[in-house]
Amino acid sequence: MKIFTNEQIRSIDRYTIENEGVTSLELVERAATAIACELISRWRPSHRICIFAGPGNNGADALAVGRMLIEQGYNVEIFLFNIFGKLSDECAYNRKRLLEIDNADFTEVVGGNFQPPDLSSDVVVLDGLFGSGLREPLTGGFQSLVSYINGSEAYVVSIDVPSGLFGEWNENVLSRNVVHADLTLAIQFPRLAFFIVDNAEFIGEWKVLDIELSQQEIKSSPYDYFLVEKSDARNMLRPRGLFTSKADFGNALLVAGSYGMMGAAVMGARAALRSGVGKLTVHSPRCGYNILQASVPEALFQADHHDIAITDITLKHDYNAVAIGPGIGTHDVTKKALESFIISHSSGKPLLLDADALNCISQRRHLLDALPPLSIITPHAGEFDRLFGEHNTAEERLKTAIEQSAYYQIIILLKGRYTAVVRPDGKIYFNSSGNPGLATPGSGDVLTGIIASFMAQGYIPAVAATLGAFVHGYAGDIAAERHGRYGVLASDVAECTGRAIRDIMQ
Ligand SMILES: NC(=O)C1=CN([C@@H]2O[C@H](COP(=O)(O)OP(=O)(O)OC[C@H]3O[C@@H](n4cnc5c(N)ncnc54)[C@H](O)[C@@H]3O)[C@@H](O)[C@H]2O)[C@@H](O)CC1
Ligand SMILES: [K+]
């Protein structure tokens, strides 16, 4: 699903109005109908619903929902905040229609002292104060109202975006300036802000409501941000022909493991094999020999000269993919080996670096310059900050990822609830699969194995990373169904990888 900016949404809106014979009022009506249906499916008419409408079209949506709910016999109180004496045409029209209803509980706040209604825990608040037209963080009376709503026990449903939050970047927004929604009903598209963890407390659960903006325009509009869903992953996966052999599915090298961390190599290797690599070699210290041969007999073992750490990374074959990092530790000898490997790596083939490989590099930042273009690094927030400096917010971190990805021409896969695959051209692909069960040791090693496997099979690095993240999350979802979110082991995720790919392709 494409994630558009406010400006792009406005232009798709305009296109729909100009080319599909719809008026702006009709779009408001469509949005309101979808929102009202959602509320009706969740709450009974006797439930107290309190609607706060602002002066723009977010407010117009809210007023129209109010009218629809009253017509369905709901117990609704509506407040319109017309502080500046200026309403959008759509808002003014919906105000008029509301006033035509006898006995509507409607208050227009025009300034001065506003006595807010009692918002106890059995009230549903519909927040239609501001949406995509917000120009600056909320202040004054609106800020007080937002604080009042946030301080109440009411269940809060926000229309489009929580009021006070900008759809994209929110560096100057404070927690007290933004409505804390329990549910956000986004009109037609989710927003970039939904995928940045700093905003999780504002957005709550979210759902997209379709108002049938022009599909043609949506399809042809360029985008910078994308939410990867099952159908996207399906489109990326290539079916396997009947007359194929293992030679068609690539040859991968996984450099992983050290004394006490051989599990990382085992999990990475299992995940790579379960996601279909044709041939896999694991390069590990000698202490890993028995462990790997016994637990992953399908993989070849290439012994390092050293007993407990990796000290020499040399490519004995022309591998289709080389992944380095799971469980390698940060011994000085390993750092040196990594450094000389990266500096002398001359094939130009992208590498995949994860976990301890990133920790090793963080003390030798010049190595980032030496990475072949389109190499993939897969840090979590801590590893990212060790590489690129401390960040106070996830938003800052994402912005740095965009800059650094472009600067080094590498793909940065930033792990999180919505893992972000940041590409050098500035595009970000957010992953939608997965669950908190994946927050378990070894989960990242499994992801590395999957991505390495896809790279070896000939998926271009950006696709291997994006598809790998989706398959990993989806395998985690299957594992959580079996074992529960508390009980998922990374090994379970690796085992479920093959089934995940099968289910995605069905
Ligand atoms: N996406 C779409 O195609 C559609 C969007 N609709 C709704 O329309 C909304 C956008 O409507 P608008 O563009 O009218 O914008 P808003 O309703 O978000 O608000 C615009 C108004 O707020 C004022 N304002 C902005 N920042 C302020 C601040 N910090 N303090 C006080 N006042 C401030 C502006 O002066 C303007 O009057 C969407 O969020 C959505 O709810 C729907 O009506 C239907 C179609
Ligand atoms: K809103």
UniProtKB/TrEMBL annotation:
Binds 1 potassium ion per subunit. Residues 9-219 form the YjeF N-terminal domain. Keywords: ATP-binding, Isomerase, Lyase, Metal-binding, Multifunctional enzyme, NAD, NADP, Nucleotide-binding, Potassium. K(+) binds at N58, D127, S163. Its EC number is 4.2.1.136, 5.1.99.6. GO terms for biological process: metabolite repair; nicotinamide nucleotide metabolic process. AMP binds at K415, G416, R417, Y418, T419, G444. GO terms for molecular function: ADP-dependent NAD(P)H-hydrate dehydratase activity; ATP binding; metal ion binding; NAD(P)HX epimerase activity. PROSITE patterns: YJEF_C_3 (PS51383), YJEF_N (PS51385). Residues 229-504 form the YjeF C-terminal domain. It holds the Pfam family Carb_kinase. Its cofactor is Mg(2+); K(+). InterPro entries: CARKD, Nnr, Ribokinase-like, YjeF_N_dom, YjeF_N_dom_sf. (6S)-NADPHX binds at residues 57-61, 131-137, 160, 264, 327, 380, 445. It catalyses: (6R)-NADHX = (6S)-NADHX; (6S)-NADPHX + ADP = AMP + phosphate + NADPH + H(+); (6S)-NADHX + ADP = AMP + phosphate + NADH + H(+); (6R)-NADPHX = (6S)-NADPHX. Gene3D superfamilies: 3.40.1190.20, YjeF N-terminal domain. Homotetramer. Belongs to the NnrD/CARKD family. Catalyzes the epimerization of the S- and R-forms of NAD(P)HX, a damaged form of NAD(P)H that is a result of enzymatic or heat-dependent hydration. This is a prerequisite for the S-specific NAD(P)H-hydrate dehydratase to allow the repair of both epimers of NAD(P)HX. Bifunctional enzyme that catalyzes the epimerization of the S- and R-forms of NAD(P)HX and the dehydration of the S-form of NAD(P)HX at the expense of ADP, which is converted to AMP. This allows the repair of both epimers of NAD(P)HX, a damaged form of NAD(P)H that is a result of enzymatic or heat-dependent hydration. This is Bifunctional NAD(P)H-hydrate repair enzyme. It comes from Muribaculum gordoncarteri.
